[in-house]
Each structure stands twice: as C-alpha cells, then as structure tokens.
Amino acid sequence: MKKIMVVDDNPDHLHSIKQTLEKMGDDYKVTCVSSGTRCIRSLENNEIPDLILLDIMMPEMSGWEILKILQENSLWKDIPVVFLTARTDDIAKSAGKFLAADYIEKPFDIEDLKERIDKALKDSSQKKRL
What we know:
The chain is of the alpha/beta class. About 50% of the residues lie in helices and about 20% in strands. It has a single domain (about 1-130), classed as Rossmann fold (3-Layer(aba) Sandwich). The protein starts with a strand and ends with a helix.
C-alpha cells in the first residue's frame, strides 16, 4: 500500500481526493493536511509518504516554498511531488513540470490522476534502485 499525502487548503478538495483515491482500490492510504506548515510538521514527526500531491496557491506557505523545503532536506528530497493546482499559466506549468514529478491542473480527471500518481511512484522506485 502506497502512502499519499495531499496538501491543499480547500477542505472539499482534500475530502474528495481522499475518498475517490481510496475507493479506486486498496492501493493507497491517503493522508490530508490543510497547510504547508502541517505538511512539514507531519514529515518532522516521521510521517513520510511515498508521494505528495501539492497545491501551489495556499496561504502562509505556497507549494513552491514547501517544495524548496523538501528538496533541502536529505530525508525528504526524494519524495516525489505532484503539483495539483488551479494555476494554468505557462510559467507555472513549465516550472512545475521541471521541478516536480508532474503538474496536474484542476479540475482533473480522477483516472488520469491515478495514472500519473502510479507513474510518479514507479519512476521514483526506479531511481532508488539505481
């Protein structure tokens, strides 16, 4: 079972993503946090997921800032991050695809989300073997 952390300030998004992914099968255990601060706190408490779905536009700390913190920490830098965001501008898309495992725009198709999560997890496990 793969552990996925969803970081989004919208409780409706958190609830629907968790419910939908967990209903798609027994592949995922989904944990939801509503801010970057809570994400970092969970990681510091050794609640390390296999993948993070990360919103970009959040109060307090943006997804970009969270990604930078992850990349600077040797224990967290290899966690694949998939941006899941309403930002659709070309600069965000280009940066997101370059810096993270993937970049998915809201609204999204849940089957597409699952396929892209599976691909990011597979790519991550292949990198670890090298």
